[in-house]
Write a structure and sequence with these properties.
This protein is mostly helical. The protein has eleven helices and no strands. The longest helix has 20 residues.
């Protein structure tokens, strides 16, 4: 399920653009979104007619990242301590105004329609829905949609179980199921953030700090970088005061 080179390159470029986008008020014109969807459908059809299914799916992922990375309400992301009251480790989307992103699931499923094997998009969208937007049932729908096209995919099954246990509050099982994903080079930052939070909730400060440090040093997402740096300051404060 490794993120493909083309998608990785495009995603990296659009993520850097999102860092700038989140520092500005969100666009208000709903008609622009409708036009984008229509144009996207035409582009996808053209690429598919040329036999370029992979490129069409990769572009679909990039559009999904832009959609989820664009604030629905005006907001500002800042990494300065105490500069934003909504910098929440469990809900980083609140740092740029929150939001609902009603098309997130359908956009992910559209990419899977184009390329059923591109399960990364299901993992990403389901992570956002379950752990950021508090819609685990919709996250499970996306994962089932992907699993129906990829029967026997162990990672999808594990992720479905993690989302299911998150609904019941069984943090121990969620952690056990998410930990193996950390070794993947394409592990979404939101999963790393979730695991770090789970480490902290069970009192494992060392592992939590190590993961937050990795996010702070390597993530291209300013929201998650800000959360990681804030959490590191909190984790390191007791040690500093004891010296």
């Amino acid at each position: 399920m490794a993120l493909r080179p083309l998608a990785l390159g495009l995603a990296a470029c659009c993520t850097l653009n999102l860092a700038a986008t989140r520092l500005a008020p969100a666009p208000k014109a709903a008609a622009a979104g409708v036009r984008l969807n229509a144009d996207s459908a035409v582009e996808d059809a053209a690429l598919l007619s040329l036999g370029m299914r992979r490129m069409a799916a990769d572009l679909g992922l990039v559009r999904l990242l832009i959609y989820y990375g664009t604030p629905e309400e005006a907001g500002v992301v800042s990494e300065e301590p105490g500069s934003h009251p909504y910098l929440d480790p469990m809900h980083p989307e609140l740092a740029w105004g929150g939001g609902h992103y009603p098309e997130l699931a359908s956009r992910a499923e559209r990419v899977l329609d184009i390329d059923p094997s591109f399960t990364y998009v299901a993992i990403y969208a389901a992570g956002a829905l379950a752990f950021n937007l508090n819609r685990p049932d919709q996250a499970l729908d996306v994962l089932r949609y992907a699993a129906a096209r990829n029967p026997g995919d162990v990672e999808l099954a594990q992720y479905m179980a993690a989302v299911g246990f998150s609904r019941t509050g069984d943090k121990r099982r969620v952690l056990r199921l998410l930990e193996p994903m950390l070794s993947r080079p394409d592990c979404p930052t939101m999963i790393k953030n979730m695991v770090a939070y789970l480490y902290l909730s069970r009192g494992d400060r060392a592992r939590a700090a190590a993961l937050y440090r990795e996010i702070a040093e390597s993530s291209r997402d300013p929201g998650y970088r800000g959360i990681a740096r804030m959490m590191l300051r909190r984790l390191e404060a007791p040690a500093a005061s004891g010296r």
